[in-house]
Specification:
heterodimer; A: ABC transporter involved in vitamin B12 uptake, BtuC; 13 helices; B: alpha/beta
Chain lengths: 305, 238
């Protein structure tokens, strides 16, 4: 049996990323912060995919919105508010969604996402098509020196991602994690063994919602602005793309995949602005055909060799 | 001895086909009964009704006085009624050990890891422990399916053709393992079976189904020589 090196690898990656905080150029800090934020959302998706379900998510718009409307200027409070708000929303919608499977689950989830998008676009109170800026003055009550905000948010993202990834790793290795995989394989047998499939799917959905909220809040802090595009279905599709690109084999896969995706997009946007989506499409085709388990299978093969 | 499982006036039809027509049965604690009959006679339908997968059109099925017909399979499992399947229902991408860990976890066993290792040993599955369930030979898949059903320590165990698809030299071994696991634990066992050697050797009572009806209900040595059973189930001259 091979030893699980996930936690040491996570800790090493966390240390490297933290050391890079004051050294990396601003563009790289931004790129990595976005990759970490998106990776968190995708990690939630991976939880759902373990049960064989794909959610298009509801975006994390609500996260920044709560901060904005409540007049919060503390980044830590905004992250907490975004996470809790998204979890509550998922807890309400999950009551219905957890009854559905496969394409019906995905389409219903997408429908809710588009209702949210419609509300955001039509309501001037919610920022309409322009969205709104985030005004952050402190983190956990400590004032932020001008010009250092983005690097602080990045460092916070690294620490949060490490904590969450460690927790999700523990979760996946637990009975609940195995049960999720068992549901993907055979729901009937899980019920006949005495467990509630509905309950597992529901709680995974709420957890995925919380992670999406946290990721959304971090992305909003990194960008300093939110607009309804974050709740649009193409954004949700992007998360599914990243999830498939990385695979569900390990908690680190979504973050590696998100970093590759963000890097590819930055480079492709610069050198092939009109065809970069096509190159991503071709990459997806290659992944599905040759690496159906995602890029993570390459690393697993290397460590198994 | 008191009855643990009682079915009264149970009817079930699928369109024009009657799968259960006025079934009246009771099963005592710590007993072993075999359900025999040709394909489509109503044996699996009866198991499906007991475990809540199907609702009877009419009638009552009770376990320890508790009505089962309005409950889901999950709730009925909670009442102590567990089953295995004609086509093994496993978690194909998980290893044999993980399959059992899932079952032990659901059953909230005290020491899940130790309990799982004990089941692996008892059922001779230790050598397959790390192999994905989807890659197991049929006999081992059957064995794992039965082992999963036993993890929750049921009071009533329903086995749907536990030896079908199993090599002739393995079928007695599987039944010996199952009966050994439940012996002395007060478990009531109902097993659907087409192999009359298995029925003769392991059943204390035989229920012969034909066209949704019970045509014989007796000890194996009596039921298997019943003219109707010989004609409709076992084959040969009445």
């Amino acid at each position: 049996m091979s030893r699980d090196r996930t936690v040491p690898a996570l800790a090493a990656a966390c240390a490297v990323l933290l050391v890079a905080t004051p050294l990396a150029p601003q563009w790289l800090v931004f790129l990595l912060a976005m990759a970490l934020a998106k990776g968190l959302v995708v990690l939630g998706l991976v939880l759902l995919m373990r049960t064989g379900l794909v959610s298009f998510g509801l975006g994390a718009y609500a996260a920044a919105l709560v901060g904005h409307r409540a007049g919060l200027t503390d980044a830590a409070l905004m992250i907490v508010a975004g996470t809790v708000c998204a979890a509550v929303l998922a807890a309400i919608l999950g009551l219905l969604l957890a009854r559905y499977r496969e394409i019906f689950f995905a389409m219903l989830s997408l429908a809710f996402s588009m209702i949210l998008y419609g509300l955001l676009v039509k309501s001037s109170t919610l920022g309409s098509t322009d969205g709104f800026n985030l005004h952050v003055k402190s983190f956990a009550g400590i004032g932020l020196p001008a010009g250092s905000e983005r690097r602080v948010f990045y460092a916070v993202s690294v620490l949060l991602v490490f904590g969450v990834a460690w927790l999700v790793h523990r979760f996946l290795a637990s009975h609940w994690g195995r049960l999720s995989a068992a549901i993907r394989d055979n729901e009937l047998r899980v019920e006949y063994l005495g467990a509630s499939v509905y309950r597992v799917v529901y709680l995974n959905y709420v957890a995925a919602g919380a992670l999406a909220g946290m990721g959304g809040a971090l992305a909003a802090l990194a960008v300093g602005h939110v607009d309804p595009e974050t709740a649009y279905w193409t954004t949700s599709g992007e998360f599914v793309f990243i999830a498939i690109l990385g695979g569900t084999g390990n908690v680190m896969a979504p973050f590696l995949s998100a970093a590759i995706f963000e890097g590819l997009r930055t480079v492709a946007n610069q050198y092939a602005p009109n065809v970069w989506q096509m190159s991503l499409g071709l990459a997806m085709l290659a992944i599905i055909m040759f690496l159906p388990g995602g890029l993570w299978t390459l690393l697993r093969r290397r460590s198994a060799a | 001895m008191s009855a643990i499982l009682v079915a009264e006036g149970v009817y079930k039809s699928f369109g024009a086909v009657s799968a259960a027509a006025n079934i009246n049965l009771s099963f005592e604690r710590d007993s072993v009964a075999s359900l025999i009959g040709a394909n489509g006679a109503g044996k699996t339908t009866f198991l499906n009704m007991v475990t809540g997968y199907l609702k009877p059109d009419h009638g009552s099925i009770r376990c320890d006085g508790r009505e089962l017909t309005q409950h889901s399979p999950r709730e009925i499992t909670g009442f102590g009624i567990c089953r295995s399947f004609q086509i093994p229902q496993l978690f194909h991408s998980l290893s044999v050990r993980e399959n059992l860990l899932v079952a032990e976890g659901i059953a909230a066993s005290d020491r899940v890891e130790e309990a799982t290792d004990a089941v692996l040993e008892r059922f001779g599955l230790a050598q397959y422990a790390m192999r994905p369930a989807g890659l197991l030979p049929e006999g081992i898949r059957k064995l794992l399916d039965v082992a999963l059903a036993l993890v929750a320590k049921p009071r009533v165990l329903l086995l749907d053709e536990p030896t079908s698809g199993v090599a002739a030299d393995e079928k007695f071994g599987i039944m010996d393992l199952v009966m050994g696991a439940v012996r002395g634990a007060g478990v009531t066992v109902l097993f659907v079976e087409h192999d009359m050697e298995i029925v003769s050797r392991f059943a204390e009572r035989v229920l012969a189904f034909y066209d949704g009806r019970i045509i014989a209900d007796a000890a194996p040595q009596v039921a298997l020589v019943d003219p109707e059973v010989k004609r409709y189930v076992v084959g040969g001259h009445a």
